Amino acid sequence: MSFASPLVLLALLALPALVALYVVDARGRARVGATFSNPALAAAVTPRRPGFRRHIPFAIAALAIAALVVAAARPQRTVAVPVERASIMLATDTSGSMQATDVKPSRLVAVQRAAVAFSDRVPKRVNVGVMQFGGRAAVLQSPTKDRDAVRAAVARLTPRGGTAMGDAIVTALRALKQPAGINGRRPPAALLLISDGASTRGVEPVAAAQQARRQKIPVYTVALGTASGTITVKRKDGSTETRRVPPDPSTLRQVARASGGQFFTAADAKGLDAIYKKLGSQLGRKRQKHEISSSFAGGALLLLRLGAGNSLRLFGRLI
Question: For the chain, give me the number of helices (H) and strands (E)?
């Protein structure tokens, strides 16, 4: 919790002085009462004395004053709220290595399932786009709020070709570009890029990531797969061979760092789901301060009513 007017809280320093004055006054009253009364008759005159309860109204009033001071300082609570017109592009590596089955049932199918779940988790007001990059980058669905269109685009992801990671970033930046709003600022955007291998062609990925940083579009990267991942490749003579296709986290880590995003690794479908769940609740939202002065002011009024009720019940007066 933070305060819009924190200097007002200095008024709380007056509370100890108020308590001291109350203690001095209470002792003064006790001395005056002892001067003009006979202690031997006290039990007969007031058989039920309030004891410590006589201090309850003051204690409640002091708490109410403290709450009013806090309310005047305009307390604020930071909450996550959906960002209007925000856009997120899901860029999936569809190179041949995505057919590996070290991530069950296959790397690509695991990505498709997680992508659908991701699109359902982000706020409905956030635009989600879908693209693939194998030998070349292609946008399958421009950023949209239509989740059915997003799911249909995810279903069209097909593994083939190499890995043009840098081209994917550049293509995504063009797709995410939006006109400035009324305040002159462009709506926030982010790129979620998942791959299982090193870039093999096209624009250098880190250079593309630096371009993304200049446009204030962070790239969140996920390295998918395990070192034991393999695919079966058909040779020209008709025979087949098994090739190892371990992930390449180094490039993806550099891309995330250069763009101002974050890097993740996923060795199985469960880990991928956890990453997408985390990003689904993070992207498309911004941290915003909400003033909660009314809560403290309302609490103070309730305390004042409670204190007044106790005073009337014990002493027959408000103060």
Answer: 10, 11
Name the DSSP class of 170: H
- Contact call for residues 197 and 248 (beta carbons, < 8 A): yes
CATH 3.40.50.410: which residues of the chain? 84-283
Contacts of 118 (CB under 8 A, 6+ apart): 90, 128, 192, 276, 277, 279, 280
User: Do residues 74 and 291 lie in contact, with contact meaning Cβ atoms separated by under 8 Å?
Assistant: yes
Q: What is the CATH number of domain 84-283?
A: 3.40.50.410
CA 158 – CA 112 distance, rounded (Å): 10
Q: Which residue has the tokens 């180094």?
A: 250
Given a contact cutoff of 8 angstroms between Cβ atoms, the answer to whether 100 and 106 are in contact is yes
Give which of 270, 266, 198 is closest to 226, Cα–Cα.
Answer: 266
- The pair of three-digit structure tokens given for residue 152, joined into one six-digit string: 């249909």
Distance of CA 281 to the CA centre of its chain: 7
The rounded distance, in Å, linking the Cα atoms of 146 and 30 is 76
DSSP states of 78-142 as a string?
EEEEEPTT-EEEEEEE-SGGGG-SSSSS-HHHHHHHHHHHHHHHS-TTSEEEEEEESSSEEEEEE
Residue that the structure tokens 């590596």 belong to: 93
DSSP track, 22-64? HHHHHHHHHHHHHHTS-GGGHHHH-SS--GGGGGHHHHHHHHH
CA–CA separation, 242 and 254 (whole Å): 29
Cβ-contact 311, 57 below 8 angstroms? yes
Q: Residue range 205-220: average pLDDT?
A: 95
- For residues 194 and 157, what is the distance between their CA atoms, to the nearest angstrom? 13
In this predicted structure, the answer to whether residue 264 has a pLDDT above a threshold of 90 is yes
Q: In terms of residues, how long is the chain?
A: 319
pLDDT, one tens digit per residue, over 89-127 is 999 999 989 999 999 999 999 999 999 999 888 888 889
